[in-house]
Amino acid sequence: MIIAFSGIDSSGKTTQIDIFECECKNRGLRVGKIWGKGRGTPGVMLIKGIVRGDRGMSAEQKKEYRANVYKNSRKRKLLLTASILDLWWYFGLWYRMQNLFNSVLICDRYIWDTYIDFRSEFPEFDIDNWRIWKIAIKLAPKPAHSFMFYITAEESYRRDQQKGDLTLDPLEVKKAKVDKYMKQMDSGKWEVIIDGMRDRESISKQVKETVFPV
User: Fold this and answer.
1) Which residues, 6+ apart, have CB-to-CB distance to 105 below 8 Å?
2) Which range marks the domain in which residue 93 is found?
């Protein structure tokens, strides 16, 4: 049984995943956890490690090198294409295998989080009309239950700062991502939309009762 948790950074996914994992184990279930992010899948990370020319550089030099790479339209398209193709086996095969070996497979982020990341990071490419993206969506197994944790961009930014997250997105980027999440919410991509501003106990109760109805 695949259970997917989605939402912008600091929306409460990790906290609820930890609580839900404990609930599953208390019920004697075999639990697996998996994290998925486009451009961070194993195949893409392997390719990056091979082709990158920033080995031996300082952190600042690496940042400048990668920024210059991402300015190149052809390289950006190649990276996006490779990232989508890597999702074919990652979502289409690896997730299915993990699901076979576990009673519950908890997914921290899922295909629609990756979609929003791609649309945010590569706005010049209309992946909605790319055949390889449509195939990636079809290959991803449908979760038994999916939750989307909603908070405002301002609250996400505040929580990131509170945690000392050095990779936090600028507020304007977060606002654009929240808008994209809302569009996907309106199109019914998730089974349950959860207000991430609620207290953790009431949220965890809702998650538990959705997956394990009395």
Assistant:
1) 1, 2, 3, 31, 32, 33, 34, 95, 98, 99
2) 2-39+84-211
